[in-house]
Amino acid sequence: MLELAFTPDRDRTEPVYRQLRDYLRDLIAAERLPRGTKLPATRELATSLGLSRNTVAQAYDELVADGLAAAHVGQGTFVATPLRPADDTRRAAARAQTADDPPRGFAWSGLFALRARALAVPSGLVPRRGGPVRWDFRGGQIALDTLPTAELRRVFGQVLATELRDVAAVHTPYGLPVLRREIARYLVTRGIACEPDDVAVVNGAQQAIDLATRVLVDPGDSVVLEEPGYFGARVAFAAAQANVIAVDVDAHGLDTDALARVLRARRVKLVYTTPAAQSPTGVVLSDDRRRALLELADEHQVPILEDDYDSELRYEGPPIAALKTRDRAGQLIYVGTFSKVLFPGLRVGYVVAARPLLDKMMLARWNADVTTNVIGQAALAHLLASGGLTRHLKRVRVTYAARLDAMLQSLASAMPEGVTWTTPRGGHSVWVTLPAGTDPDALMQSTLDAGLYYTPGDVFCGDGRGGRHLALSFANHTPAEITAGIGLLGTLLRKQRASGRRSARA
Amino acid sequence: MLELAFTPDRDRTEPVYRQLRDYLRDLIAAERLPRGTKLPATRELATSLGLSRNTVAQAYDELVADGLAAAHVGQGTFVATPLRPADDTRRAAARAQTADDPPRGFAWSGLFALRARALAVPSGLVPRRGGPVRWDFRGGQIALDTLPTAELRRVFGQVLATELRDVAAVHTPYGLPVLRREIARYLVTRGIACEPDDVAVVNGAQQAIDLATRVLVDPGDSVVLEEPGYFGARVAFAAAQANVIAVDVDAHGLDTDALARVLRARRVKLVYTTPAAQSPTGVVLSDDRRRALLELADEHQVPILEDDYDSELRYEGPPIAALKTRDRAGQLIYVGTFSKVLFPGLRVGYVVAARPLLDKMMLARWNADVTTNVIGQAALAHLLASGGLTRHLKRVRVTYAARLDAMLQSLASAMPEGVTWTTPRGGHSVWVTLPAGTDPDALMQSTLDAGLYYTPGDVFCGDGRGGRHLALSFANHTPAEITAGIGLLGTLLRKQRASGRRSARA
Fold it and tell me: CB–CB of A140 and B375 under 8 A?
């Protein structure tokens, strides 16, 4: 790690983060930090300098904004790299470009919109350095070995062979009529009666959340999010400069009594919820709570966004009906996706909503990116029409059920006392709570070193509330791999707690 | 057409549009306008009632917001249709859903965000009723008969056969590394030297414009748009509640003297321009103007968004270098797309920008829809790497050159005196100016009746300035079809002008 010897001058009126920025800027200018150097993680630097993590992050942000550093999601922050021509053609082009006088950096920092300050990725999603990946228990994984490759080749081939000319220039924001029809038909399996005209195709659930937010939420408006809750909704609300109100989740799902208190106290523009398999706990919203939620929505005339992202992946008991099936007034925005049942890179999801809202969302969609790629849409329509998706679902449910069982059994046998976890009967992951006194950072560093990756709980929680949790996805490992990985996690957790006790005694 | 007998009461304090809304609401409640009825086009109803078109549009908006009508892009506004179960399963589901008490409409109108009011599609893009399509000269078309179907089957097949597992769960907002590398290499043909890290993949040029706007423009900020100019940029700026300043275009492209006056008078956050083939005129920005534009950008420290959407489609003379090749400070945001050279439904474009800006845009991207579909990305990487795209470009340039020639020749022989048009040497369309005294609405109705469709000029112009223009795309018709279609357009234009003179005399 880089040796940085910075001491803040607390007597200066200049904030500490600016002082740190200037210190780093001078090092960069003097080439003591050469271009391409990876800066230490904010957490590490904050600890080593005795500063708050936020101070370091602000200093880095300013360096990035000034073009002196670059933050790459998934890699960290680097001292900015100059143009590095890779071959003769490019070298020539680069020469032509710089012939007259040397490049000067453009000061982007002063130009960003105020509203752009609210854009963020949860820090826990920015991968930290670790060993080569041996276990990937992070969210967003799927069982790659169950991908229906032959079936996908067939349906994509069909589109390219016979339908390309028909769909190539279609650009209605609502999506291809044939796919809207197939989705409306498919949704009967979720108990939802709707017409193709009630359905719009989007690029995955995230876009539906973003569009609903663009259309319903002004800066300062209040929205309700489950706590813990889906980070994609949290960032979309934050980007809209919304006031995010956390309502706790327990073993029965969203706490509707707490929601009632919030709705009585203030006007809320949107309630986001994941009733079929709460994200990240996997808990199912109980029937009483469902009734209470709909009554509250009716009483306070507040729209509900039901993110049904994981509902098809249920491994035990009857399917859970969508909340949307009970939506008589048309105040539920129903969002689904093929990211979990097929694969996330497909980027096809859908939204079912009342026409006035759907039309407004599609106006926003037209501004945003016009429509979803038509080849994927047309191929998916074939997959739905031929029953290929249903067959695939039957297969993957068996696979995932075995993986979930392996996960729950290995947790039971490997976790030290005091660790608890949810026991979902569907979805992709389990939510683990560590005993008080565990150091989540130390645990994470030891697991990363061992090549074991998971999503830290703070990704799903409001500030400072997630440290004791972790989300473990069982999607992309065999039962045997899961047993070995969770065994290792248990060992590392015991070690970390033992060393924690030792240092507390010392 | 519906007979509507509404007379506004100008003495009432209630605005006329509200009075019209209530009148229509009563008709709907009394079922005199049954569900499913198409409401007259705003233009027609405004004319027949002697109201402004805006008044009618506002009344319709309120009906839509109240759930009493539905506006379908491309079809018009309809009295809202109830749930219509299509088969037994859905009928049963519908029954279950409505067993307890009848549905009540949810009042969405009061819930839309203030910022959602700025969302719009230019009215000229909402298709009007007409005869079966015989000539489609509207924008957004491509030569469907030149689609490289075999090549596309090959590259998509390759991805599905061997790479699906590698890309299925990739979800970096920047796009697949292999495609970023191929795009960086490809851009040498545009004179641009950049590294893969300078490139991000987006869902077409529209998303790049939207993301740049989200990141740079706050409500009330000023942005510059060419006049006439690309409607996609206009709607994205409007959605951001920006103050859009029109700067005129002439035969040499954007008028940089006029731009200089604007930049001296006020702070501008972004200048949008299409230097290689101005949208919609097809004019190339002259060398003097290019220099002037870059000097102004430097002097006023304003970012330039260069939309290079059509640059590969140049049929005569040397390729036009991108403005980006002269961007030494990194203040140009370069946007390209495969929509025009392949097909729009592919939804793959790219942006090249300085890292601080690119990183910020990708944070916004992550909120918006995470990433672009990976199968399309991986297939495109193969198409670029194998030279397939370059071969395709050589073929389509020949096709388009012949179509452009046919278009220019038939305009010369078929247009009545007083009609003028641009003579682009690239792109997809020609910008036609009608003589003063032409009634653009009457002309459009007569061409629509004949099955001849084009994009009316007001789509590309600020309020009230586009009536005398039309954009004619020559992309998707053979030279013979173009000759016949433009011949008919000439005939209809002469007729319309003759009847216009007769009624002026009467």
Answer: no
Counting other chains too, the contacts that B59-65 makes at CB distance below 8 Å and 24 or more residues apart are B59/B17, B59/B18, B59/B20, B59/B21, B59/B24, B62/B17, B62/B18, B62/B21, B62/B109, B63/B21, B63/B24, B63/B25, B63/B28, B64/A355, B64/A356, B64/A359, B65/A356, B65/B108, B65/B109, B65/B112
Mean pLDDT of B37-56: 81
Rounded mean pLDDT of A259-270? 97
Q: C-alpha angle B163/B167/B173, rounded to 5°?
A: 150
| pLDDT bracket for residue B43 (50, 70, 90) | confident
For residues B249 and B255, the answer to whether their CB atoms sit within 8 Å is yes
Contact A225, A460 (CB under 8 A): no
In this structure, what DSSP letter does residue B286 have?
A: P
- Does B472 score more than 50 pLDDT? yes
What percentage of residues in chain A have a pLDDT greater than 70? 90
| Main-chain dihedrals φ then ψ at residue B489, nearest 5 degrees | -60, -45
- Residues 63-102, chain B, touching A (beta carbon < 8 A): 64-67, 70-74, 80-81, 83-86, 89-91, 93-94, 96-98, 100-102
- Strand partners for A431: A471
Cβ burial, residue A132 (10 Å; 0-12/13-18/19+): exposed
Question: CB count, 10 Å around CB of B162?
Answer: 11
Eight-state DSSP code of residue A133? P
Residue B506's CB is within 10 A of a number of other CB atoms, namely 5
| Phi then psi dihedrals of residue B435, to 5 deg | -70, 155
pTM of the entire predicted model = 0.81
Residues of chain B with C-beta less than 8 angstroms from the C-beta of A188: 89-90, 93
Closest listed residue to residue B372, CA positions, set B207, B132, B256, B163: B207
Output the six-digit token pair for A51. 């500063």
**Are B203 and A376 within 8 A, CB to CB?**
no
The amino acid present at B2, given as its one-letter code, is L
Spatial distance between the Cα atoms of B104 and A140, rounded to a whole number of angstroms: 38
Token digits of residue A357:
């809202």
Residues 6+ apart with CB under 8 A from B12: B19
Any idea which residue has 């090749």 for tokens? B325
| Contact criterion met (CB < 8 Å) for B204 and A369 | yes
- What is the amino acid identity at position B434? L
Report yes or no: A10 and A3 within 8 Å, Cβ to Cβ. no
Structure tokens belonging to residue B205: 């040029």
Reported ipTM exceeds the 0.90 cut: no
* Nearest chain B Cα distance for residue A122, angstroms: 11
DSSP labels for A16-75? HHHHHHHHHHHHHHTTSS-TTPBPPPHHHHHHHHT--HHHHHHHHHHHHHTTSEEEETTT
**What strands, in cross-sheet order, belong to the sheet with A429-433?**
A135-137, A452-456, A469-473, A429-433, A420-421
